[in-house]
Amino acid sequence: MKIVDLESFLSPEWGKTSNGFVTTQFGAALEFMVQGAQEVTLKFAKKYEGLSLVLSLNGENWHEINVENNVLKLSVTDGHYILLVRSISGNQMTLWTNPITLVSGQIDSGELAPIATDVNYITFIGDSITAGEEMIEHEPHPELSYPELIAEMLHKPLARIGYGGSGLTPSAPFQEPTAVEALWHVAPNVERPRASSDLVIVNYGTNDYNYGATVQDFCFGLRVYLLELIKRFHDAKIVLLVPFNGAFKKVFEQEIKRFDCFVLLDTTPWKISPQQVHPNILEHERVAKLLLGGLI
Fold this sequence. Notes:
Elements: E1 2-4, E2 15-17, E3 20-23, E4 29-35, E5 39-44, E6 52-57, E7 63-66, E8 71-75, E9 79-87, H1 92-97, E10 100-107, E11 111-113, E12 121-126, H2 128-131, H3 146-154, E13 158-162, H4 179-184, E14 185-187, E15 190-191, E16 197-203, H5 206-210, H6 215-232, E17 237-242, H7 249-255, E18 262-266, H8 281-295
Parallel strand pairs: 12-13, 12-16, 16-17, 17-18
Antiparallel strand pairs: 1-10, 2-3, 3-10, 4-9, 4-11, 5-8, 5-10, 6-7, 6-9, 14-15
Helix pairs in contact: 3-8
Domain SGNH hydrolase-type esterase: 124-245
Pfam family, one: Lipase_GDSL_2
Protein name: Lysophospholipase L1 related esterase
């Protein structure tokens, strides 16, 4: 078996530590080309209850892989592989405080090669909707979520910062991580790698509204957050989405007047998931098409 350096195969949702590479993100990716190998072995720091990945070979349909212990052995042929973290037992805050750690990778023969690209990332930021949670009943499907679909349509690599229950005020039910902390870290005290993005899509406000945030609180939280976005993505086009439920639309319209670097896109005419918080698979497909139309 031959040890491979995993760093060049990992999406920006993974951070490097002395113990390996860590992530707390549904949809965190591992992508590579197989050349002459028959088996790829991935070793995790421990067994993670309920950890499942999804795999696509050469752009074909995704299929699920349950990681039963701390070692995953993949039988492979030559081709382009994408692995995404799909789900794990517990909620998003549990994952933030107990990150998934990928320790090492090995192949039996041949080579693993990174996917070479000079295309800038598209970055999606938000809550559980951005993460692709509860798309089928209570199951997350980041591989079928609108960020993944739009990245595929635009032929751009994807960076995702999406944490269930998060928002821009103390009213949001999950405060680990805060929206600001998630911009800069992939896990507690683990720096988020820089990804060169020229387009950033932000979708916050749903949880704040649903859990009783006042207009004043959201106004303050949004103002602080916009400044952080500028620090992080000062060279990118930043598109703010009015939440699908129309929450705080007037606040968004008012606050972006302070800046000249934001575009506001009103999603309320799209009528996405009017009966529930989380869009289903078909609604994510609609969001992708409508959002793409608003971006072009």
